[in-house]
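Why does residue order matter? Because the sequence determines the fold. Keep that principle in mind as you read this record.
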Amino acid sequence: MNTYMMIGEKYLHVFIHFSDGVMSLRSLQGFRKAIQIEVELARIQDLFVIELWGSRQITFTYEQADYRIFNQGLAMVDFLERNLCEKVRN
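Structure:
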């Protein structure tokens, strides 16, 4: 699923995929160097779903970096809650 997110202070468009307890983030940056990050769900800290400016966002910390995933399109945060939040709790 494609969305817009922030890692630290860098904004980027990413493709998100879940498989075997890992969330893969791959940037869709065009002319910039692609970013590929593998986030182990069991190691995510400080996971929150917040509402800001009328839109829900998912925030978490992984390996001392702050991540913020913005709601872009229909049901993005619902998709992430099902695939991210429930697996982190287990």
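The radius of gyration is 12 Å.
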